[in-house]
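Progress note, sequence design subtask.
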């Protein structure tokens, strides 16, 4: 489909829809994902067995606290499990979600289409490339122009020969330190955004300065910062003034690790906020005039976050966090802006 045909519409795996049909939307989830390159085998002999054990109730506490150290935890591969889990979100009132898996983490267009048909949920599929460590060795030599061509093809014609089109460019992966190939990937995403009118979703490196540096590159490549979602703010920036400055750039601010409450986040030297603290940050952003730029999700990417494996599931934001928002004084209009109006605006092609 050409940009003119998509303008003003949201592109799902089953085809374009009107933005008003999105309803309650999570802007960063994974239903099926290959996350095993993240596996970090423990050094201690007593823990090596735990690292290769299946996810069961016996070891659930350890795996929750050490989720990157259990190999079986780091993959969502079962389509039927995805249907059961995401149906809980649908029954709670959810209507749509962004499935942010792309090249490097197991994007599965045909399976996403089947899940959408089975559940009635609108699913927006990603494009582009995750971080360099998840790519094949020769990826670092891939040209920027070829990246642009592939992303545009995903959006306008479909992924491979599936005919299923991406509706968002991302999550474009950036590490810390940021690699040269990842910088090319971000520039390619920005250029493809300009060519297609698609929204752009960024996975920043785990450093407070990373989001700002990425915004500069997007702008320099001709991308639209106001049509860009900066993910994972809750594991990247702990200082409110830094978050506020990022919001002032015009990008969308995504708090997308709701339900992940660990006192120490194993992939970065910061303390992970709990859900109440995430809501406090959101309220401060609203007070600073940025209500129209806030979106939320869980970024579910491993087994112990699913209900089947003792986790919170995809309905957690609706069932558990919305009451926290109300208790902290947020109005229904503010909640609707975050869950409905803001996703409707950012996901519609321009």
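Output:
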């Amino acid at each position: 489909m050409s940009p003119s045909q998509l303008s003003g519409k949201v592109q799902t795996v089953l085809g374009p829809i009107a933005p008003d049909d999105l309803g309650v939307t999570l802007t960063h989830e994974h239903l099926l994902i290959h996350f095993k390159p993240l596996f970090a085998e423990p050094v201690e002999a007593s823990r090596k067995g735990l690292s290769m054990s299946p996810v069961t109730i016996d070891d659930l506490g350890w795996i929750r606290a050490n989720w990157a150290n259990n190999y079986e935890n780091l993959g969502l591969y079962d389509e039927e499990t995805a249907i059961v889990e995401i149906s809980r979100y649908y029954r709670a009132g959810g209507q749509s979600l962004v499935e942010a898996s792309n090249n490097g983490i197991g994007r599965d267009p045909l399976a996403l289409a089947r899940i959408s048909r089975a559940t009635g949920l609108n699913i927006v599929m990603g494009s582009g490339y995750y971080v360099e460590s998840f790519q094949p060795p020769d990826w670092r030599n891939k040209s920027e122009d070829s990246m642009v061509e592939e992303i545009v093809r995903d959006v306008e014609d479909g992924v491979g020969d599936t005919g299923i089109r991406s509706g968002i460019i991302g999550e474009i992966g950036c590490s810390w330190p940021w690699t040269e190939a990842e910088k090319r990937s971000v520039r390619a995403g920005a250029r493809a955004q300009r060519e297609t009118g698609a929204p752009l979703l960024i996975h920043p490196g785990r450093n407070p300065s990373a989001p700002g540096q990425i915004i500069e590159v997007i702008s320099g490549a001709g991308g639209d910062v106001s049509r860009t979602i900066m993910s994972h703010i809750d594991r990247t920036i702990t200082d409110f003034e830094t978050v506020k400055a990022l919001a002032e750039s015009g990008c969308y601010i995504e708090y997308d690790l709701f339900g992940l409450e660990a006192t120490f986040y194993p992939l970065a030297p910061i303390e992970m906020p709990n859900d109440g603290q995430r809501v406090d940050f959101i309220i401060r952003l609203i007070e600073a005039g940025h209500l129209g730029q806030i979106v939320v999700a869980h970024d579910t990417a491993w087994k112990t976050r699913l209900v089947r494996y003792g986790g919170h599931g995809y309905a957690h934001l609706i069932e558990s966090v919305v009451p926290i928002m109300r208790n902290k004084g947020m109005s229904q209009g503010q909640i609707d802006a975050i869950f409905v109006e803001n996703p409707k605006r950012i996901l519609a092609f321009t």
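The domain at 24-39+74-347 is CATH 3.20.20.140 (TIM Barrel). Work on this subtask will continue into the next period as scheduled.
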